[in-house]
Amino acid sequence: MPHAPLTPATFHVLLALAEAPSHGYAIKRAVEERTEGAVRLGPGTLYAALARLVDEGLVRRVAPGRPAPVKPGPPGPLYELTAGGRATLRAEIARLETDVRSARAVLGRKAARGGAR
Description:
Elements: H1 8-19, E1 22-23, H2 24-34, H3 43-55, E2 59-62, E3 78-81, H4 83-112
Antiparallel strand pairs: 1-3, 2-3
Helix pairs in contact: 1-2, 1-4
């Protein structure tokens, strides 16, 4: 996978879009809610990540399927995950799972030898 490892921002943007197509602000909120505020995406980070993901073909901009909200100003583009984006996300999840299993094995061996020092 040429995109591995993903940055936390990229991982969380792709994960948010795996749920449903979203506008930038909805992605930001989904990430903050899912991580209980541990990951906060500022506008520069979020939109730079989205632009890069669009350029790489992992995300695409789509026309909104509903009318614009009543709030002033446009809602901004709607983004959705591509098949390549979904495959990249799945590969990154598998990579992270392998890392966690390895880390647990190391800690388990350490505990069996008498705990942390």
